[in-house]
């Protein structure tokens, strides 16, 4: 997914965000998504990123960014300060995902979450037939060297939303640069949710 | 001299607040006339919208970049100011002035008091960071600049940048705040207090009335030694000196042998005496200690009304102004919904990092300033 000219997950997120909105991107990486939101949707964006090297890349793109940990950086923002809070491919890497999501709803009107599906068909087959924790193109990390702390499926996340009274406004499954509309928990490798609470 | 140098520069002077229009300072005392030493690099554009004010630290001066005629020592932030550098003089007009109360050309305790014909000494009013900033604003007005593109500084310079944003929100597009605190902590005050004690305990200090006699060199040197310890890190000291001893193979059990670190501190202390005034040191350190942006309110409230965009920089090994304190500033700015970027640069050089971590700092500053300029409608300095 990293090498595509316009990543499909970015395109889906761009479609979910209204032009001119204020956006906070949690775990914004090198700022590519923020840049697109600013450039194509005229959004006012800011991000939070832990990796110092990536901070320079964000600043180089003319973006505003905070250097810190998602788990602790959100408390400073005032209530409903952002139209959207984005957690794309970062939720599975935080220590307190529930707290981060609830904090995101405190500071944002809507929350966009993108997660890798740890229960895709390929992953299930690897567990079933290899008897080993899956290592796939989308989940390339060995158990001893992975940034991922949380392992969840699309269904797990739906359950979580249900239990926490979070409404799923949109849900887009992705596999190999294609949108998956059916059997998402089996066929999708990633899923992006537009959420409201 | 490399092509990225601003070349030969000259300090200029501006005098204001002539009686009866003296400046009323924070301490309520009046002061005037006030002379300000300053240097400029680059070209001010027609709209006068591309000016960057550099704010120096405790013992700095107006000579931030380039070379004075006949000197081989460049200005104190030469690595950051020049064509193509962090503060790019091809695009921006960079100003640096010596702060009020210092001894590097701007009015301070060493200046002759026109009423007495003698140097002010301790009769010079106690100046604050606010007073320094007010005088800088007078200089900016004098240069015909309505709004600074940026005010930037580290350490005491960072305090001034913060004060600028609070005091003149409409005259400041952005602030770069490096390795500093929004108020001096007990530990920071304590180090200054020990250093002040060293000066005041020197018999030559004479209650500050030592001009024309022998200066309190011992005391000032010790003050500088203490300072240097706080500016370095455990790591950088270990790397630079370790336990090396001078002129001998082994440690002798007497007081004649010197560790290399001791020699270094002595050298730095002694050379400092040649270039800085002891009373000025007292005033500068006191100004830092008095600094408290929040005062009796919450820091969040102190930033209410601020409009600037911010770049806040800290260094991981800076234990004098640790990143946790810098982060307090960032938190309060964020709570005010201000545009703030912050970065904790990984460095082993302690507080000195703001002078030596050129590459990473430059990357952040260069692009931040360009972005702010672009958003203000300035492209390539025009």
Describe the protein:
The mean pLDDT of chain A is 94. The radius of gyration of chain A is 16 Å and the shape is globular. Chain A is built from eight helices and eight strands; from the N terminus they run H-E-H-E-H-E-H-E-H-E-H-H-E-E-H-E. With 197 residues, chain A is α/β, with parallel strands linked by helices. Chain A has an eight-stranded mixed sheet, with helices on both faces. Chain B is of the alpha/beta class and 382 residues long. Chain B folds into two domains: 12-184 and 292-375, Alpha/Beta hydrolase fold, catalytic domain (Rossmann fold, 3-Layer(aba) Sandwich); 189-287, Orthogonal Bundle (Rna Polymerase Sigma Factor, Chain: A). Chain B has helices at residues 129-142, 156-167, 186-200, 217-231, 234-240, 260-275, 278-290, 299-302, 323-335, 353-356, 358-375; strands spanning 12-16, 23-24, 30-31, 34-41, 51-55, 81-82, 87-88, 93-97, 112-113, 118-119, 150-154, 174-178, 309-315, 340-345. In chain B, the strands form four sheets. In chain B, strands 1-4-8-5-11-12-13-14 form an eight-stranded mixed sheet, sandwiched between helices. A two-stranded antiparallel sheet of chain B has the order 2-3. In chain B, strands 6-7 form a two-stranded parallel sheet. In chain B, strand 2 and strand 3 (30-31) form a beta hairpin. Chains A and B meet through helix 3 and strand 3 of A and helix 9, strand 14 and helix 11 of B.
